[in-house]
Amino acid sequence: MSQILPFTEANTRRVSSLFRQAMRTAFDHALRFDLYRQATQDIRAQFEANREVSDPEELERIIGATRAKLREWKHPDPYIPPCRPGGTKYQRNIPVAREPLVPGDW
């Protein structure tokens, strides 16, 4: 894998993607909102602590460690929004209404 220099748009995208994955993983594990909120604050603090890393090798090491941690914490049954592929309502056929949507004689 080629190194991506810090403070570039490509690196920003990689770190943003990891951050979103961490937030989703925290949501999958949280049973209560207050626990989820605390987990998101902890994750944000960890990302902020490494915000100013400018050494490309150190950056690659941190990103690799973050990916490994995400694999370790991956939930076996993640939350899937109902209307997304794999959700409980995905591609349900809702019958078409046969009566007027607005009652009355117009």
UniProtKB/TrEMBL annotation:
Keyword 4Fe-4S: no
Bilayer topology term: Peripheral membrane protein
CDD domains: Complex1_LYR_NDUFB9_LYRM3
Residue span, Complex 1 LYR protein domain: 13-71
Pfam family, one: Complex1_LYR
Protein's name in the database: NADH dehydrogenase [ubiquinone] 1 beta subcomplex subunit 9
Subcellular location per the Swiss-Prot or TrEMBL entry: Mitochondrion inner membrane
Signal peptide: none
Complex formation: Mammalian complex I is composed of 45 different subunits.
UniProt record similarity statement: Belongs to the complex I LYR family.
Keywords: Acetylation, Electron transport, Membrane, Mitochondrion, Mitochondrion inner membrane, Phosphoprotein, Respiratory chain, Transport
